[in-house]
């Protein structure tokens, strides 16, 4: 494969995500994975399986596309295998404001290295704590950026036998594994669409919380003020699964402060292609300050309610 056609990138991402997901499922130690490190707090864990999944994904993609670059949760920015050492360009700055109705996704801070047209954005396990505890809502998330813009996204949720995918401009799709659980037995892909025209008071809203206590205090205050204004709240523990739930109409909206680019790069495209609007507050691009995803009509109402609750008042991490 030498092209960078979004459809080709999506098919490679699907094959690799399924391979990683099946490894994570079949090789998960019976007593649970070993925690091999922590990041932002003692509860922000890395397991041996996060690293194994990341290695598998990067190696398998490199086998096919050695000139591509990577941004992955556990390794950060990874240069192309074949590029000379000085190919990493200084950071480029994307437009940092979009009107609330637009749907644009933030990019990572590192630019795509000059020698690489394509950069892969990887979360080897999104929902690591769920994976650690044996809960089903965790995902392998792989997005492909071409010239700095996400053009293909894949989220594989092995615990539910579901594979979400999207190519920019090509809609959002869901494949379900058959009862036998084999990818070969996967049902035909079907299109998914977000809910539209949902009143705020009837909205089922997914959200998540950070790992640091000081941030969680503010997040708790915000959700306490939001709760009486909506139908109910759901907290799955994986932004990628939550955004795919928006795409499939299983929840009406999702918001969270503090998620990383690799958490939402793939699922954000899937939700966008399913008809949702994704952005931050007051025209900002969705990113670590805040990400809001909702269908037509609901986005503006949820945005305005959140804006009034000042969800970004805690210190940025
Ligand atoms: C997770 C996010 C989720 C958030 C969790 C955690 P991780 O990512 O996907 O939205 O609420 O606290 O950050 O750490 O499992 O890759």
Topology record:
Layout: H1 6-26, E1 35-38, E2 45-47, H2 48-64, E3 69-72, E4 76-78, E5 118-126, H3 128-133, E6 139-146, E7 149-157, E8 162-167, E9 172-176, E10 190-191, E11 204-207, H4 213-226, E12 232-234, H5 239-247, E13 253-256, H6 261-273, E14 277-279, E15 291-294, H7 298-308
Parallel strand pairs: 3-5, 11-12, 11-13
Antiparallel strand pairs: 1-2, 3-4, 5-6, 6-7, 7-8, 8-9, 9-10, 13-15, 14-15
Helix pairs in contact: 1-2, 5-6
The chain binds L-MYO-inositol-1-phosphate.
The site of L-MYO-inositol-1-phosphate has 13 residues, from strand 5.
Give a concise summary.
The protein has helices at 6-26, 48-64, 128-133, 213-226, 239-247, 261-273, 298-308; strands at residues 35-38, 45-47, 69-72, 76-78, 118-126, 139-146, 149-157, 162-167, 172-176, 190-191, 204-207, 232-234, 253-256, 277-279, 291-294. With 317 residues, the protein is an alpha+beta fold. L-MYO-inositol-1-phosphate (LIP) binds at residues 73, 123, 126-128, 208-209, 237-239, 256, 259, 263.
Keywords:
317 residues, eight-stranded mixed beta sheet, 7 helices, 29% helix, binds L-MYO-inositol-1-phosphate
Can you put this structure into words, describing what you see?
With 317 residues, the protein is an alpha+beta fold. It has seven helices and 15 strands. It has an eight-stranded mixed sheet, with helices on both faces. About 9% of the residues have low confidence. Bound molecules: L-MYO-inositol-1-phosphate. The site of L-MYO-inositol-1-phosphate has 13 residues, from strand 5.
